[in-house]
Amino acid sequence: MQPTRRAWLAMLAFALIPRRAHAQLDELLKQLPQLPGAGKGTSAPGGLGDVKIGEGLKQALQVGTENAVKLTGRTDGYFKNQAIKILMPEKLKTLERGLRTVGYDREIDDFVLRMNRAAEQAAPSAKKIFWDAIGAMTIDDARGILNGAQTAATDYFKTKTTGQLTTAFSPVVHQTMADVGVTKQYEDLFARAQRIPFLNLESFDLDQYVVGRALDGLFHVVGDEEKRIRTNPAARVTDLLREVFGQR
């Protein structure tokens, strides 16, 4: 790695990591060759400053994840988005077919609606987790995102935040499903289905299913937002985003 490249990556990381880590990175910067004009934030004559590029990436990820949380964390954010709508689990298709056969269509449709409402209630808790992950990016993370595919940042978030998001979503989904009656409705539907002759049913962890599908849907929307910012000038809603991504 050439000295210029090493210094560029260090400057990019300085823009992305939390303030409490700046002192450690400052010691690293002292050991690296300085770019001409680096103190002024420029990497080459006529080029964007390294710090500005880093801040542009950070801002893009903040804008993209915030948009995704707003789109999913509102009424019908999941239910009316056919790409992420939570449907009956495959393992409950037998239960669904059996109950629809004996006239419980309205109850099944209402059950699906309530699962989606639980996901919509959980989605807002993702914002802080996403933004913490942005702040914790390393030099290698930033390099992979900048040079990666159109959903490189989304893949980063999947790797870094799925565990935390599962932990954050689970109690919200559990409580919301209880509040809106999904849990009781599922128990009632299961009991009714058990009375249908020759219908073989198995128990199912409904909370875990809804949490998993809620996260799948959230990451899908994050990916859409990332692609928009990378490719669509109209999605770059600040001067910094227009400047940085307009030159990529």
What's this, in brief?
The protein is an all-alpha fold and 248 residues long. The protein is 67% helix and 0% strand.
Protein model, in words:
The chain is mainly alpha-helical. The chain has one domain (57-246). The protein is built from eleven helices and no strands. α1 packs across α3 (50-72) and α3 packs across α10 (206-231). The two termini are 22 Å apart.
Question: What structural keywords apply?
Answer:
mainly alpha, 67% helix, 0% strand, 248 residues
Radius of gyration: 23 Å
Query: Structural class of the helices, strands and pairings?
Result: mainly alpha
- Name the helicity range: 55-70%
SSE ordering: HHHHHHHHHHH
What is the first-to-last residue Cα distance? Answer: 22 Å
SS field, number of helical segments: 11
How many strands, which pairing sense, and closed or not: the largest β-sheet? none
Report strand %: under 5%
- Outline the low-pLDDT stretches: 1-47
Estimate nothing, just give the exact number of structural domains: 1
> What is the molecular shape?
elongated
Number of strands: 0
Mean pLDDT: 76
